[in-house]
Design brief:
heterodimer, A: alpha/beta, Rossmann fold, 4-stranded antiparallel sheet, 11 strands, globular, B: 238 residues, Methane Monooxygenase Hydroxylase, Chain G, domain 1, 6 helices, 1% strand, elongated, disordered N terminus
């Protein structure tokens, strides 16, 4: 690809049985500390043998290397504030899920992460969103460059209806003015990344809309990946898919985690539990709790989280 | 005791059917707990009163406990499969799956006690009762309090149960030398003494199972695993 995807966002740079004699001793009773199931903020430290990147289930909240970070982020539609000062790290090359009831601001928050929120008339933001420590809302930052680095996949599969499968994959590159040196190679790479290549390689000229719902969604993910983003935002990517297609997308998320930082908004809490390393619970535009997914779903620290995930809400 | 006695902090599920399924699990656990307590009371009584008839009747009652164990396991399996419980509900269901095993084992140990009592009743007297009535009293209180703690979601009470296991162990440690002394002074009481020792052992094991239940309650309430960590009183609260 001939486009410069350096980390700069600025417009100028964008041109980048026991013995009966003794009581049964259940266990030695010497330790003075309880064995916590999960230390809330102190996950198990990675063993020295582990490679530079610790296993995902060994990363605690305090060990998160943020690829992105929202700092006191506010977002409004006109006079209606829907995000009320949220600060949240997005762990690099891991999956962060955002859960919460309808209207809690999770989709708006997601759209703030690649400056999609501002495309709505009357929508405003306040606060910072750092991408590799640079505020994407700085004046000299080009939102188009941001969206190149922070891609998005939407709820409903939305391939361009008049385009072939091949052109759908290349659409993002073309719209961004990228000169295509090896379009066939790029199409294959993106389709392989979403495990769709073998299913469509003999019919790349067919309309994108001729595919099944699950295939269409994977095509949309391929379209986002063709731009080689660093972060992938997914807004309820499986809500329109059947369980098998959902499982394929979830499997894909596991694989993409190796390369991309992923943020997924979902109403399906089991999905968050299955795919996410970290989970954030939003309520009424505020962050109620953020922790490792296994802590959130086994012993959340906040009563509101507990009530929501167990279905005792409202 | 009914399911309504359980302290849910007035936090009911929006889905009534789910709420009912969890309530049914609680109800069956309480019934099983009550049956096991009755068996334990009867087992202690038949020992103290040398009542072989009561021992035989108690042995027959064990089948009820076994049936409840299977029923509760099935209910938990259904909740896991259909509801995918999380957080406190998940801890409740997983704790329940383990708790029924402890209760069922207590039932089996009561059966063992009654079998030994039946054998002892074929002889005119016990060489000694030793501290067995007292151990039985403490172990039964532990079981009762562990089940109460489960019902009330009272982790503090559950921790107190865990701490009392040492009391039972200390009583049991007294029993062994006392019986050895009897056996050495009178070889005709050897067979009976081994039966008494076994009964002491069964009760000591029952206290261990009550302790397990106490630990499960702490886990269920606080999400904190206190197994294998020493007396609960040493542990900082979550």
């Amino acid at each position: 690809m001939n486009m410069d995807f350096s980390t700069s966002l600025s417009k100028t740079a964008a041109q980048k049985n026991p013995d009966d004699s003794a009581p049964t001793t259940r266990e030695p009773r010497t330790a003075s500390e309880p064995a916590k199931l999960e230390s809330v903020d102190q996950g198990a430290a990675p063993s020295p043998e582990v490679a530079s990147r610790p296993r995902w289930d060994e990363v605690s909240v305090s060990q998160v290397t943020p690829k992105m970070r929202a700092e006191e982020l506010h977002a409004s539609f006109g006079s209606s504030e829907v995000i009320k000062g949220i600060s949240l790290p997005i762990a690099e090359k891991l999956v962060t899920a955002i859960i919460g009831p309808s209207g809690c601001g999770k989709s708006t928050f997601l759209r703030c992460l690649n400056r999609m929120h501002e495309v709505v008339s009357g929508a405003t933001t306040k606060g910072k969103v750092l991408l590799d420590k640079q505020d994407i809302y700085d004046r000299d930052v080009d939102p188009v460059r941001v969206r190149g680095r922070v891609g998005m996949v939407f709820q409903k599969p939305n391939p361009f209806p008049t385009m072939s499968i091949r052109d759908n994959v290349l659409a993002g590159l073309r719209l961004n003015g990228v000169k295509l040196k090896d379009p066939d190679g790029q199409v294959e790479k993106a389709l392989r990344a979403v495990a769709l290549w073998d299913e469509v390689k003999d019919g790349l000229a067919k309309a994108g809309t001729s595919l099944s719902g699950g295939q269409q969604q994977r095509l949309c993910i391929a379209r986002a990946l063709a731009l080689e983003p660093e972060v992938l935002l997914m807004d309820e990517p499986c809500s329109a898919l059947d369980p098998i297609a959902t499982a394929r997308v979830e499997e894909l998320i596991h694989e993409l985690r190796e390369t991309y930082t992923i943020v997924i908004v979902t109403h399906n809490m089991q999905q968050a539990a299955r795919v996410a390393n970290f989970t954030a619970f939003f309520y009424l535009g505020q962050l109620v709790e953020y922790n490792r997914t296994q802590v959130i779903f086994t012993r959340p620290q906040e009563q509101r989280t507990e009530d929501y995930i167990t279905g005792r809400f409202g | 005791m009914t399911v309504l006695d359980i302290d849910m902090g007035d936090r009911r599920h929006t889905d009534r059917e789910y709420e009912n399924e969890l309530a049914q699990v609680r109800e069956r656990i309480l019934l099983m707990g009550a049956r096991v307590e009755e068996m334990m009371t009867a087992s202690r009584k038949c020992f103290v009163e040398r009542d072989a008839d009561l021992a035989r009747a108690t042995i027959r009652n064990d089948s009820q406990i076994d049936t409840l164990e299977v029923e509760i396991d099935e209910l938990c399996l259904q909740v896991l499969a259909r509801r995918q419980p999380v957080a406190s509900d998940l801890r409740f269901i997983t704790a329940t799956l383990k708790l029924v095993t402890d209760l069922e084992r207590i039932g089996d140990l009561c059966v063992n006690m009654c079998e030994r009592v039946s054998e002892l009743c074929e002889d005119p007297t016990y060489p000694t009762q030793g501290p067995i009535p007292r151990i039985g009293e403490v172990a039964q209180a532990m079981l009762h309090d562990a089940l109460d703690a489960f019902v009330a979601g009272d982790a503090t009470k559950a921790e107190q149960v865990v701490d009392r296991d040492n009391v039972v162990d200390a009583y049991y440690a007294q029993l062994f030398p006392e019986l050895v002394a009897h056996m050495m002074s009178d070889p005709t009481v050897v067979f009976r003494s081994t039966r008494i020792l076994s009964i002491g052992k069964y009760i000591e094991r029952i206290a261990d199972h009550a302790t397990n239940i106490g630990e499960l309650v702490v886990f269920m309430v606080r999400g904190l695993d206190v197994r294998h960590t020493g007396p609960a009183s040493n542990n900082p609260q979550a």
